[in-house]
Design the sequence.
């Protein structure tokens, strides 16, 4: 049925930028809140940013002013623009979306994409 496919991760130097994409596909009625989470090695997964269906955004303090979340509803896609990356941003980044289908509304997760910030 529904799947979220992430792309855009990679290796960048400190101060560099990356843009992550997450596209949802399948039998989708509506997509509500979408967001990005990350999990560094040995640490718990944490919320990075969310965006509601109305366009309201929230950011973790650690990424405010550096990361920007956006969405393209026509493409069922959410993006994460990451600027001025720091080594502490290194993690696997996961997208999440609350999606309504024929069976109801449920959270869906992407497979994760690795972001490594290193010299």
Sequence:
């Amino acid at each position: 049925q529904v799947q979220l496919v992430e792309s855009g991760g990679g290796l960048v130097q400190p101060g560099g930028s990356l843009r992550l994409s997450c596209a949802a596909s399948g039998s989708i009625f509506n997509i509500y809140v979408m967001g990005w989470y990350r999990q560094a090695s040995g640490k718990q997964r944490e919320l990075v940013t969310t965006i509601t269906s109305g366009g309201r955004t929230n950011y973790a303090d650690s990424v405010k002013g550096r990361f920007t979340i956006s969405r393209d509803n026509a493409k069922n896609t959410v993006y994460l623009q990451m600027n001025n990356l720091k080594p502490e941003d290194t993690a696997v980044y996961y997208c999440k979306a609350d999606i309504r289908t024929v069976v109801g509304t449920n959270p869906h997760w992407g497979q994760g994409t690795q972001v490594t910030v290193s010299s």
